[in-house]
Amino acid sequence: MIPFVKAHACGNDFLILEETVAMRQHAALARKLCSRNTSIGADGIEFLERRSNGEFFLRLFNADGSEAELSGNGTRCVAAWLASSEGLDEVVLGTHGGPRSCHVVEDADPLYLIESEMGVPRVMERTIELPGIGNVAGAMVNVGNPHFVIFVDSEDFGSHGLSWQALGGQISVSPLFPHGTNVEFVKVLSKGEIAFRIFERGCGPTTSSGTGTCASSAAAMALRGVDRELKAVAEGGAQRTVWLANDQIMRLTGPAEIICRGEVAGL
Ligand SMILES: N[C@@H](CCC[C@H](N)C(=O)O)C(=O)O
Questions:
Q1: What is the pTM of this model?
Q2: Which tens digit of pLDDT belongs to each residue from 182-239?
Q3: Which of 31, 152, 239, 257 has the highest CB neighbour number within 10 Å of its CB?
């Protein structure tokens, strides 16, 4: 049996497993344990490695077994678990997208409010051409992992005659993005607020995304002139981003809640 912790951030849910249980079966474990009908169910697994020098390192696997550079919400979920189980209010978590420092702002165990340093976003305007759909204007944004952000003004976040889920699904696996991409559909509501929807690489539509929140905010700040402190509202709730200048680190503040812990049959 494999010990696990389950946590979520605005409904974006993760299993946390110790790296020692993975036995090089990360992808297979992600596919099996993230299945919502036949196992625990989650959007991804964070494998937590404890290095001999005391540092932590996270490997993130999406529900389809693909490995991503990092997750903003998943990182915060691990920070919440380390705060709850080991009393760590400040922690640096290494990821393949770079180290992420997390700081507990409010502790109402099992619910935490956490601020994370999310690196320096890179935003590049780009129009892509999709067969059968046409030109789609947006921005490629890298926040440690890849995103394509599209600004929309429709009520339902749809664009090009398609629902955001259908268009997101096509863009996410388009050969234009050889490593795949996460896709966000962003509406600017005011200078201080955006609303957005998320189609995640390796997972599909999700109610929230930490890196998606940062990518959407960075695109809106760099290309639409919104405030540098923003409320970003996804289906699962709001998070706060602060990006004082394009060459600075973006900070992200949002909740993370531990749901349960237990043991599950492995492969
Ligand atoms: N939900 C995550 C992002 C997870 C990784 C993503 N699916 C990818 O493949 O890059 C977040 O909160 O950032």
A1: 0.97
A2: 999 999 999 999 999 999 999 999 999 999 999 999 999 999 999 999 999 999 999 9
A3: 239
Q: Among 71, 171, 173, 250, which residue has the most ligand 1 atoms within 8 Å of its CB, making it the best to mutate?
A: 71
Atom of ligand 1 nearest to the CA of 74: 12
Taking the domains of the chain in order of start, what are their residue ranges? 2-116+255-264, 122-248
Q: Does domain 2-116+255-264 have CATH number 3.10.310.10?
A: yes
Which residues, other chains included, contact 149 with Cβ-Cβ below 8 Å and sequence gap of 6+? 138, 139, 141, 183, 184, 186, 215, 216, 219
Q: Which CATH class is domain 122-248?
A: alpha beta
**Same CATH fold assignment for domains 2-116+255-264 and 122-248:** yes
> d(Cα 1, Cα 142) in Å, to the nearest integer?
37
